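Exercise 7b. Backbone tokens:
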């Protein structure tokens, strides 16, 4: 008969059926509540057994039914039939938390109504049930189950008798009465289980009970109908028994096929769920802010791992699952429990269950265990356990333990062992991936040389205290001998000095203060709840300690440290809450340390650099009109044929007061002030005019213009570009827009539609500084681009750094695999050009070919260094002279 059980409402301990209560009782035996549960269940067992005996005596007196057959062997035969029906039971995991055991005891029970008196059927059922429990070594449930067996059969015959009397049928048992009585037995068993849930103070929703009762009635009706039909057919037509047997076997095969299908589906869902849960917990840990010392390392979240343990427990229908995890190599394992509470300090120093030399699941039963294993199981309050290690590359990441399967008849079987083994493999892989992500995250926020935070890590750590604390101070420390040591002794010696300076800085400030290496020999620290006076004292102490000579191997390197600091309250307009702004002010203070004064605090009077930028921004429009701003061009050539394919338009500003202003200084200021649209329009107009004049001369040379993120936020920008192309009569394919990954991904929802519209006009799009921005491959596939430009930092390092050489080769291969043209910037030597040509790079640009030139000098360069030859469409192709 069906035996359905479900875990209600995520309660910490579960009684899927009353027969599993002893396992729950033992699991919490170390607590007062568990002892109370044990006492209550003992009383409940005595009540069930007493009621069963009294009810059996009453029914035996009231309904001493005489069956149609009175043979001495019918009792043993029914007992064998009940025993076989229990052995052929099918366990179905309906969904998470529900284990539904389908047995076929309704078949011998419904036949027993016709062939044997009540006492014989009762004895046969009790003997078969108790024998099954003893054979499976489920000794702790015998008394309760004996009482349950008595009540099941007694209630079945009582209902059958009442129905028989109500319908007033002929002598003997009517089939309707037999069917009704048979359906009563599993319902009685279910009611007993629900009562046990209440006795143990567990919760089960009404909807859950109704669903289980419905399933029990359906399966019980099918089984009883098969048994009843088979008996009636054989009693009328004895030679029809092979057909009845075939139908019965077909029904059993259908149950087994259905259970296997559901089990496989549930196992796959469980494997997927566990892997996703671990992955999500890793992502959530990565999203959490850093600790007090700025460490962004891994942390264990008990709530997340408890959910994972509960999911594994539900799938195995276990009373308890223990995840013992080691998330860091040198830390002890931590236990996370799903299900019943664990006894305190249950793991012995040399626990035999945790001696796991291999990677396979081990199955321990208390009835088959040696004294040492038996003691370990008793410490856990468990009758049986499945234990499997979590291993990755021969490294023990943890252990999974599953205790006591919640089933009326059986413990853990081969399917449970297979599932736990597969789940352990998935969980080990997920844990390994989580650790890898934690390592990548740590590397992303930490300087690999010193182990201190890097600039992004410092920004992440400083964000919260800057917004929550009243006063914070940013320190910036610069060692002024870094470049000298690098030039004189090489970068290896300079790196050693930087590492030593980082250690001194950490030792001086302690572990609780965030410290970062910004670049070179520049460091930063954040002092929380510190006044400007206190910051000055700390800065003086740091300068003294960092200026002590550095013993590097057999040399002693003299050093001088300069320290600048800026407080969040330094501005009269209000506190500064921006990390970069605070660091910028501290940097200004460092630059102001001159004339023997190596420690300076930022003052608003030091902000002349900001005044200069303000002047440039306010004067920029006038500078465009006065001709102070011009466009220079840097040629680009094809590597195989050395043809001049195009030029890149670069803006220059000759300021009447400041002289030549570097684009890296004024372009960001112009962009921040919202004037980049005017700058882009100016460069675009000049570039298209130059291309138009080349076309008039029969030259087909393209021009590349750099775009800003502000251009990609302008919905009217594509229309403006189309209008400019039409006015100058320049084909769209001779115009290239260069953009950075970071510029696009600052607001991809707004930028991508603009780029697609520009691309639809026929304009060539190129990704500039490729390899230095976001996850390049992931975003490159989303962008409607035609070219990638390798950042010049990689090209410049190809001759001396094998890593840069490998990066360049990878970008060339990646670009070609995506059907893109690859352009290399920063080509300054013949060997770099030859290497790029051997790799198959398409276009080169750099000082080896030409520096950026004014329009007049570019014309002279073209005349002096190129030869003209007829090209396509009656246009001229320029080829570099060797």
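Sequence design result:
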């Amino acid at each position: 008969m069906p035996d359905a059980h479900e875990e209600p409402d995520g309660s910490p301990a579960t009684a899927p059926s009353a027969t599993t209560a002893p396992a729950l009782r033992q699991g919490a035996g170390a607590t007062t509540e568990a002892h109370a549960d044990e006492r209550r269940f003992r009383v409940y067992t005595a009540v069930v057994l007493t009621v069963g005996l009294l009810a059996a005596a009453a029914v035996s007196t009231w309904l001493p039914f005489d069956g149609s057959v009175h043979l001495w062997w019918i009792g043993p035969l029914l007992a064998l039939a009940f025993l076989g029906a229990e052995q052929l039971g099918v366990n179905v995991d309906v969904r998470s938390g529900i284990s539904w055991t389908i047995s076929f005891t309704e078949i011998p029970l419904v036949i027993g109504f016709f062939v044997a008196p009540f006492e014989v059927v009762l004895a046969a059922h009790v003997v078969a049930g108790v024998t099954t429990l003893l054979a499976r070594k489920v000794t702790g449930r015998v008394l309760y189950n004996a009482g349950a067996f008595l009540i099941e059969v007694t209630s079945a015959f009582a209902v059958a008798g009442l129905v028989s009397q109500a319908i007033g049928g002929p002598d003997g048992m009517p089939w309707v009465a037999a069917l009704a009585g048979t359906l009563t037995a599993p319902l009685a068993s279910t009611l007993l289980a629900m009562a046990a849930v209440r006795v143990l103070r567990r919760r089960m929703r009404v909807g859950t009970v109704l669903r289980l009762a419905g399933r029990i009635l359906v399966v019980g009706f099918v089984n009883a109908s098969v048994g009843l039909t088979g008996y009636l057919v054989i009693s009328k037509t004895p030679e029809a028994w092979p057909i009845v047997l075939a139908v019965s076997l077909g029904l059993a095969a259908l149950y087994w096929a259905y259970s296997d299908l559901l089990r496989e589906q549930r196992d796959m869902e469980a494997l997927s769920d566990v892997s996703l849960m671990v992955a999500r917990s890793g992502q959530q840990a990565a999203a959490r802010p850093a600790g007090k010392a700025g460490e962004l390392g891994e942390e264990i979240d008990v709530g997340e791992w408890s959910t994972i343990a509960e999911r594994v427990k539900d799938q195995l229908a276990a009373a308890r699952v223990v995840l013992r995890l080691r998330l860091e190599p040198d830390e002890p394992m931590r236990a996370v429990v799903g299900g019943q509470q664990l006894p305190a300090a249950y793991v012995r120093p040399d626990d035999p269950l945790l001696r796991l030399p291999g990677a396979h699941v081990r199955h321990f039963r208390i009835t088959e265990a040696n004294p040492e294993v038996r003691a370990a199981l008793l410490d856990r309050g468990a009758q049986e356990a499945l234990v499997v290690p979590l291993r990755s590359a021969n490294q023990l990441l943890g252990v999974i333990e599953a205790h006591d399967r919640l089933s009326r008849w059986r413990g853990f079987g081969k399917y449970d062992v297979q599932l736990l083994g597969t789940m352990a493999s998935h969980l080990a892989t997920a844990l390994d991936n989580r650790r890898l992500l934690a390592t990548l995250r740590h590397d992303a926020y930490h300087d690999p040389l010193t182990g201190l935070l890097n600039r992004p890590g410092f920004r992440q750590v400083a964000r919260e205290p800057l917004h929550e604390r009243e006063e914070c101070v940013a320190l910036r420390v610069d060692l002024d001998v870094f470049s000298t040591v690098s030039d004189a002794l090489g970068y290896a010696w300079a790196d050693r000095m930087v590492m030593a300076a980082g250690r001194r800085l950490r030792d001086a400030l302690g572990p609780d203060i965030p410290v970062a290496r910004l670049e070179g020999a520049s460091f930063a620290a954040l002092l929380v709840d510190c006044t400007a006076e206190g910051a000055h004292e700390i800065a003086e102490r740091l300068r003294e300690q960092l200026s002590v000579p550095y013993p590097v191997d057999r040399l002693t390197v003299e050093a001088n440290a300069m320290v600048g600091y800026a407080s969040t309250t330094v501005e009269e307009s209000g506190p500064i809450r921006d990390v970069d702004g605070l660091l910028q002010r501290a940097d200004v203070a460092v630059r102001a340390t001159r004339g023997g004064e190596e420690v300076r605090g930022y003052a608003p009077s030091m902000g002349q650099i900001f005044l200069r930028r303000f002047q440039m921004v306010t004067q920029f429009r006038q500078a465009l009109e006065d001709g102070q701003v011009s466009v220079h061009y840097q040629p680009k050539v094809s590597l195989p044929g050395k043809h001049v394919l195009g030029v890149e338009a670069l803006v220059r500003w000759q300021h009447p007061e400041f002289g030549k202003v570097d684009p890296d200084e004024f372009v960001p200021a112009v962009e921040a002030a919202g004037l980049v649209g005017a700058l882009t329009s100016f460069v675009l107009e000049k570039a298209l005019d130059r291309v138009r004049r080349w076309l008039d001369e029969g030259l087909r040379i393209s021009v590349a213009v750099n775009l800003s993120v502000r251009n990609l936020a302008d919905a009217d920008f594509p229309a403006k570009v189309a209008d400019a192309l039409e006015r100058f009569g320049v084909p769209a394919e001779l115009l290239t827009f260069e953009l950075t990954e970071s510029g696009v991904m600052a607001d991809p929802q707004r930028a991508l539609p603009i780029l697609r519209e520009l691309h639809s006009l026929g304009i060539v799009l190129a990704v500039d500084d490729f390899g230095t921005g976001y996850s390049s491959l992931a975003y490159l596939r989303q962008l409607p681009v035609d070219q990638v430009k390798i950042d010049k930092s990689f090209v410049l390092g190809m001759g001396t750094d094998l890593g840069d050489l490998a990066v360049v080769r990878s970008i060339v291969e990646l670009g070609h695999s995506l059907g893109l043209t690859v352009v290399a910037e920063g080509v300054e030597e013949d060997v770099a050009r030859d290497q790029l040509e051997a790799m198959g790079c398409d276009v080169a640009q750099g000082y080896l070919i030409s520096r950026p030139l004014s329009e007049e000098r570019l014309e002279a360069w073209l005349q002096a260094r190129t030869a003209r030859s007829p090209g396509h469409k009656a246009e001229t192709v320029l080829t570099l002279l060797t």
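Instructor comment: The longest strand covers residues 644-655. The chain has four domains: 3-236, 270-445, 455-606, 612-873.
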